[in-house]
Design a protein that fits this description.
Elements (H helix, E strand, L loop, with lengths): L9 H11 L5 E7 L3 E2 L24 H10 L3 E16 H11 L7 E4 L2 E6 L4 H5 L8 E12 L5 E5 L16 H26 L1
Antiparallel strand pairs: 1-2, 1-3, 3-5, 3-6, 4-5, 4-7
Helix pairs in contact: 1-2, 3-5
C-alpha cells in the first residue's frame, strides 16, 4: 500500500513512478539554489536541474534511485519516453487543450516553465500532431526521448498520471484521441496570441 503521494518530495515521487506506474526512471543533473545547475554551464542552462546526464539514460532500480536521491539533493528525475509519448507544446495551447480534454478523460499533463507536456500511449504521439505546421509543437518518443519529472526543478504536475485515491495509473489515451482537441486549442489560442502581440506593439 502507498501512502499519500507528495509531488514535492523526491522519495515519494520516485516510489510512485517506479512502484505504481512501473516507469523506468534515471537521475539527472542537480539544481543548487545558489549555484544553479551542476551541468557546468549554470548561467546558460535552459533547464537547470531538469535534464539528463550525458549519454544514454541509465535507468535505476527503485533502491538505486532512493540511494541516488539521498546522495544528490536536488537531482532531476528523468524518464525516457518508452512508457509513454510526450507531446510538448506552449503552455497556453496545452491549457486550452486540457480544458477540452477534461470533458472526455483525464490526461496526464506536466508543466515546465512556459511548456506543457501531455502524455499519451507510447508510439502514438505522432497521430496527435500529424499535419500540424506549428514548430512549437513537438513529440518526444522512444528511448532517445525524455522528460523531467516532478519534483525536478521548475517541473510540476498539472494532472498527475495516477488516480489520487486509488493509487492506480491513469489509462493513457491514443494520440489520435487528442488530435481534435489540439486542433481546436490552436484555433482558439493563435488569434488571441496575435491580438496580444498587436496590443503590445501599439
Amino acid at each position: 500500500m502507498y501512502g499519500p503521494i507528495d509531488t514535492r518530495d523526491p522519495a515519494s515521487c520516485a516510489a510512485a513512478y517506479t512502484g505504481i506506474l512501473r516507469w523506468p526512471v534515471a537521475v539527472g543533473y542537480r539544481y543548487r539554489p545558489r549555484g544553479g545547475c551542476t551541468c557546468g554551464t549554470p548561467e546558460s542552462c535552459p533547464a537547470p536541474g531538469a535534464h539528463p546526464l550525458p549519454g544514454p539514460v541509465t535507468v535505476c532500480t527503485a533502491e538505486q534511485l532512493g540511494d541516488e536521491l539521498a546522495a544528490s539533493p536536488g537531482a532531476a528525475l528523468i524518464a525516457p519516453t518508452v512508457s509513454f509519448d510526450a507531446i510538448a507544446l506552449p503552455r497556453e495551447y496545452g491549457m486550452a487543450a486540457m480544458i477540452s480534454l477534461d470533458r472526455v478523460a483525464p490526461v496526464p499533463c506536466l508543466m515546465e516553465g512556459d511548456r506543457a507536456m501531455l502524455l499519451v500511449l507510447p508510439s502514438t504521439g505522432r497521430y496527435a500532431v500529424g499535419g500540424m505546421t506549428d514548430s512549437a509543437v513537438q513529440v518526444r518518443s522512444g528511448p532517445t526521448g525524455w522528460v523531467a519529472l516532478p519534483p525536478s526543478h521548475g517541473v510540476r504536475w498539472d494532472t498527475p498520471p495516477w488516480h489520487e485515491q486509488a493509487h492506480q495509473p491513469l489509462p493513457l489515451l491514443h494520440g489520435q484521441d487528442l488530435r481534435s482537441h489540439l486542433d481546436e486549442a490552436l484555433r482558439v489560442v493563435a488569434p488571441q496570441a496575435a491580438d496580444s502581440m498587436a496590443v503590445q506593439r501599439s
